[in-house]
Write a structure and sequence with these properties.
The structure is a single chain. The protein folds into two domains: 119 residues, ATPase, nucleotide binding domain (Nucleotidyltransferase, domain 5), CATH 3.30.420.40; 109 residues, 2-Layer Sandwich (Nucleotidyltransferase, domain 5), CATH 3.30.420.40. Helices cover 35% and strands 24% of the residues. The protein is built from eight helices and 15 strands. The longest helix is centred in the C-terminal third of the chain and has 21 residues. The radius of gyration is 18 Å and the shape is globular.
């Protein structure tokens, strides 16, 4: 048991998004991906049956890698919705049939191995707090992911306060993510300058509510951070995510890695 704890074996992380499902094999000591990222399109409609089947495809592909963990090892998964005790309580960007689904049990049965599911933005926040731009930062850190919607993770002194749904704040009479997500920018054909105006409104509002020590911006759009972050005028420092679009995959393994080590400690 002690040997298993010290080895910190690699873990598979899966990130379920509104448009794609991607996964990789993560070294829990460093947060580095040991494999290539495998991605498949999110099925449409994104029903529980279709999505779990797609997750199984990604896990099967990763399991052929030389870096793959033992076949019965646990898998960490992110989901774009509120997750409490393994049950889905919101489904803004996937099929509504997910509501009240025990996603932990569903995926555990599909994959025949233990699965722990966490909100996608919470996973990104954990990854940035442990390995990325939030490492060592005390006080409140807000990780905001700009993608199909707006995800958010609230980190305090390195610990996660789960299920902070700041993408659904009402701003100017609209659900914030309907106007300010990365997909909304593309849908509305906005230039970066025009999009920055909307982001300024959003971040100024969140800053007023929480006065964080740091904003970290994640999601695929973080790779274009130079196009909009310099245009924002905030009291709070705001930086792109270090792990960029891989933060969800990495973060998916953190919670399950902690539980695995805790179980080993108890058994030893």
């Amino acid at each position: 048991m002690d040997e298993m704890l010290q080895q910190n074996p690699p873990l598979i992380g899966i990130d379920i998004g509104g448009t794609g499902i991607k996964g990789g094999i993560v070294d829990p000591k460093s947060g580095i991906l040991l494999s290539e990222t495998i991605r498949v399109p999110t099925p449409q409609p994104a029903t529980p049956e279709a999505v779990t089947a797609a997750v199984a495809v990604v896990v099967a592909e990763l399991s052929t890698s030389p870096q793959a963990p033992e076949a019965r090892s646990p898998v960490g998964v992110t989901f774009p919705g509120i997750i409490q005790h393994g049950v889905v309580h919101s489904a803004a960007n996937v099929d509504k049939s997910w509501l009240h689904t025990d996603i932990d049990s569903l995926l555990t049965a599909q994959l025949s191995r233990p699965v722990k599911v966490i909100n996608d933005a919470d996973a990104a926040g954990l990854a940035e707090a442990r390995y990325g731009a939030g490492k060592g930062v005390t006080g409140s850190v807000l990780v905001i992911t700009l993608g199909t919607g707006i995800g958010s993770a609230f980190i305090f002194d390195g610990k996660l306060v789960p299920n902070a749904e700041l993408g659904h704040l009402e701003i100017d009479g609209f659900d914030a993510e309907t106007q300010s997500s990365a997909v909304a920018r593309e849908r509305n054909g906005l230039s970066w300058a025009e999009y920055s105006v909307l982001l300024q409104r959003y971040f100024s509002h969140v800053e007023f509510l929480f006065s964080p020590e740091l904003f970290i911006v994640g999601g695929g759009i973080s790779m274009r951070a130079d196009e909009y972050l310099p245009r924002l005028k905030l009291r709070t420092p705001i930086v792109p995510a270090v792990l960029r679009n891989e933060a969800g995959i990495v973060g998916a393994t953190i919670d399950i890695g902690l539980k695995l080590n805790f179980a080993v400690l108890r058994a030893s």
